[in-house]
Amino acid sequence: MMKRAGMVVAAAAAAVLAAGQARAENFDDVASKAKPVAGLYGLGAALWTQVGGCKKMTNDLERRQCEGIRDARTSQVRGKTFLFRTGPSPVAVGKWDDKKKSVALEIAPCLACEAPVDVDGEMLYVVGEGALKVSGGAIEVAPIHKTARAFKDKAEFDAWQTDALPRLRSEFVVRVDGAKKWNKGGSEGMQVDVVAYRTYDPCTGVVVGARPASDKLAPDQRACGDKVEEKKHPEPPKEEIKKPKEPELPLRLSPFQINQAMTPVRKQANQCFDAYGVAGKASFNITINSDGTIGKVEQTGDFVDTPTGKCIEKAIGEVTFPKFRKTSIAFDFPVLLQ
Question: How far is residue 66 from each of residues 61, 70, 121, 176, 275, measured CA to CA in Å?
Fold first, then answer.
């Protein structure tokens, strides 16, 4: 009888040990259960049920039909998760620490901080949970991940900042039911619940930060940009190799560099509003030349051919950006004044 009891205890202990050795859930496990959304449009569609919707319907029948669709979609998103992939990642890089041979990195839960999302006619920025502030029109949310990245030396860090940082991508698994609406500094948006996230370099597959943990991804040579194309060109003559090389410019500017350069324009836009008192929203498509100067500004929205619009365009024209290698870069700069 004692022998049988010992066998039972041993079997139970083995079961506990096996359970403890079971693989912990990683990011891919969580992401596989989420529904992918197609860019900002898909994100706006997922958030539609959370902003009320149907308010603009003047016809009673159309409004009731809209409310029926809204209620059905609300039940569909309740408890569900969505996988959203950003473009250039919301990664902030600290100053180089020569003693530690590292830099501090912060990942912000910014699903749409550079440009707002159209949600049933409302232009809304979308962020994750955390302390939120709007400074000079720039959306800032508390980082969701803080870490330090070590490098062999400053030269290796500079190369990483030039080549890898602009191509980093982030994936966020979020829940939209219960999303909270906010209004700060003249900007409006939604805060969603971030269930999981991962920031990585698609070229090398190296993961910068993740929750839960993530294995290294398979490298994608197509994401390496010019580094792949350079192999196609013959090596320069030996006499050229001997010449001292000037520091190579980045191929393009990172979102952080663009956002930093446009900060004075956001402040000036608020001053334009104070001067003329006209509320509204507009978008400025801005083309930057490789030497950092403004090449072209195209304006759409409420301020076209108005003193307010000309005031903002004047501020844009005075911005100087860092130099880069591409012929030009274009981006949209939304303005909401109220």
Answer: 9, 6, 15, 19, 41
Does 187 lie in the same domain as 54? yes
Note down the domain range covering 277: 255-337
Same domain, 120 and 167: yes
Structural domain tally of the chain?
A: 2
Instruction: Identify the pLDDT of residue 229.
Output: 45
Stated pTM of the model = 0.59
Which two structure tokens, joined as six digits, stand for 50? 């959370």
Q: Which two tokens stand for residue 248?
A: 């190579």
Q: What is the CATH number of the domain that holds 283?
A: 3.30.2420
| Length of the chain, in residues | 338
Q: What percent of the chain has pLDDT over 70?
A: 82
Q: Is residue 97 part of a domain?
A: yes
Question: In Å, how far are 164, 167, 219 from 201, measured between CA atoms?
Answer: 7, 6, 8
User: What angle separates helix 307-317 from helix 255-276, to the nearest 10 degrees?
Assistant: 150
Q: Are residues 103 and 208 in the same domain?
A: yes
- The confidence band for 171, taking pLDDT boundaries of 50, 70 and 90, is very high
Query: For residue 228, what pLDDT is reported?
Result: 44
Shared domain check, 332 and 212: no
Amino acid 15: pLDDT: 53
Task: Report d(CA 137, CA 187) in Å as an integer.
Answer: 7
Q: How many CB atoms lie within 10 A of CB 85?
A: 16
Which range (192-201, 247-256, 282-291) has the least confidence?
Answer: 247-256
Residues whose CB is less than 8 angstroms from the CB of residue 168 and which lie 6 or more positions away in sequence, other chains included: 88, 89, 91, 199, 200, 201, 208
Which of 257, 256, 273 has the alpha carbon at shortest distance from 315?
273
